[in-house]
Amino acid sequence: MKIVVILGSRNPQGQTARAANAFIEGATQAGAEVESFYLPTMNIQRCKQCDENGWGGCRQRGACGGHQDDLALLADKMRQADGVVFATPVYWGSLSESMRAFTDRLRRITRHENGRLGIEGKKAVGICVAGGSGGGAPKCCVDLEYTLSVSGLNLVDLIPARRQNLPMKLGLLRQEGAWFARGASETEA
Q: Residue 9 to residues 66, 91, 151, 159: CA-CA distances in angstroms?
């Protein structure tokens, strides 16, 4: 199985990276090939709402015509993978700005059938890691679930974590990664 991990965190040593790495460890131990992308280090622009109706090429062709950035690369990586993991730190109860920019544009291109090709129905997992009080992780999961579902992904799990429970969640994330690598069977015990 090939898995793409998309991280909305800049810090490769931070809490979100630790959570994603635990998932990756479980997945690779179960035989998966994993490729990770840190959104803040990539060129992902926010949507320009190109035409007078606020849409443009995303609605007409299923591809962004307003930017020449890394959106198409990541969408193609998702299409080539068997599964996708979205890991984001929680900022003010929601997605990081880099994850928001990416998922907002992903949601737009998948409104067209060409944009949905290879993405619709693909299994996905969301990981939302909160620092501070940690109270925003559940709301962030709701935001991520909505956007990924509207994009046509088959969201098989959402994992909220907070700095206070992250050490315990790392073990769960390793198990989740192995389960996901085995095909994320909904009937598996």
A: 25, 11, 21, 16
Residues 6+ apart with CB under 8 A from 54: none
- Tell me the per-residue pLDDT of 119-154, one tens digit each, with 9 for 90 and over: 999 999 999 999 988 889 999 999 999 999 999 999
The number of beta carbons lying within 10 Å of the beta carbon of residue 11 is 13
What is the distance between the alpha carbons of residues 39 and 96, in angstroms, rounded to a whole number? 10
| Number of structural domains found in the chain | 1
Please state the pTM of the whole predicted model. 0.94
Residues 145 and 129: their CA atoms lie apart, in Å, by 14
Q: Provide the CATH number for the domain around residue 166.
A: 3.40.50.360
Confirm whether 189 is domain-assigned: no
Instruction: Report d(CA 112, CA 107) in Å as an integer.
Output: 10
pLDDT at 189: 44
Angstrom distance (rounded) from CA 144 to CA 140: 6
* Cβ contact 162:134 at 8 Å: yes
- In 72-104, which positions are buried (b, 16+ CB within 10 angstroms) versus exposed (e)? eebbebbeebbbbbbbbbbbeebbbebbbbbbe
